[in-house]
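Q: Focus on the shape:
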Amino acid sequence: MSNNLLCPIHPWPGSKVIAFLLTLLLSACATPPPIQQVRQDLFRDDLFAANTNPIKDHHIFAVDAAMKQFIATEIVSQLRSTSHQRALFNALYNKAQLRLEYDSSYTRTASEAFAARSGNCLSLVIMTAALAKEMGLSVQYQKVITKEDWSRNGGLYFASGHVNIVLGKKRFDEKNHFDQNYQMTIDFLPPQDTANQRTIDLEENTIVAMYMNNRAAESLVRNQIDQAYWWAKEAIKADPQFSYSYNTLGVIYMRHKQYLDAYRTLDMALKTDPDSLVAMSNMVQTLENLDRIAEASNLNEQLLSKQPYPPFHFFNMGVKAMEENDFQRAKILFQRELKRAPDYHEFHFWLGLAHFRLGELEAAQQELDIAKANSTTQKDFALYSAKSDRLHALRRQ
């Protein structure tokens, strides 16, 4: 099974909304970059309220009493007939035992995901790793090279990448009777979505940086700027080579109207990953705010040459057409956006609204049902369910 991790992103050319990429979009390099030291001069603790809840990375993978009890009651009993890896998989993803639901709204620690029986893909990877290590299994994290998916929340845009986890042999396995070289990959996406995809091994400190960067982005969505800063700072300290944490910190400085600090931080993001279109887009806005118009224009031209139609381009045009009551044009624009992101729930929802305004009730119903099926948060699921139910009632009348 496979796991998809949704994370907040960065801004794009021609758009004045701030966006930032969260956790999983790493540059695909065959060899690791040289060790990078933490740039302490990028941090401006004096600008933000003191952190009253210190961030401790060891809490991310902590195994609590409930998790240990789960291993003892649901897993140990299977070990006479199957491998440790298979026993863990059966216990986690057999509906008769632990039922996990995908929820992209909040990145949980291992114990939080276990208690909630829910989490985005990064949360589920962290929880699986914590349980596996408690059982004595080795773990290897992997980034799966897939096309990034985009989403949004208010004025922030998000890109999602994908990670999974490989469970290796038990460290103390002299008495076990299964294949000592047996490995199992646990993925939270359908197999057809990740079949034949390349992967890149990730170190655990990068997973920690991803978690903290997600929490920074989630704090930004809630307009908790001070908390977002402390999460982004810790993300950079966890893995100075993870470029998206610099981008997130740059967005935080932009929100704080500290544009010189934003410039220096985004410059570090681009030095770490020169091909990051997200960091480039944020840099364009920063340069404009610094009145460095010529530099901003030159960088924006580079962005447009690489990405003439940024994510949500046709969708935003479709929303404008809806506001102008041009529902036929809106339908065409939403369909065009869906060709680029065929599974994104909000595009299906708005296409359903366009069909409804055109009197195409059956097509509207289909799109609302797809939006509900593809929703990634309980809030969205409830919204689409309500709209779908009302349309069902209307059609019956």
Remarks:
- Residues 1-33 have pLDDT under 50 and may be disordered.
- The domain at 314-396 is CATH 1.25.40.10 (Serine Threonine Protein Phosphatase 5, Tetratricopeptide repeat).
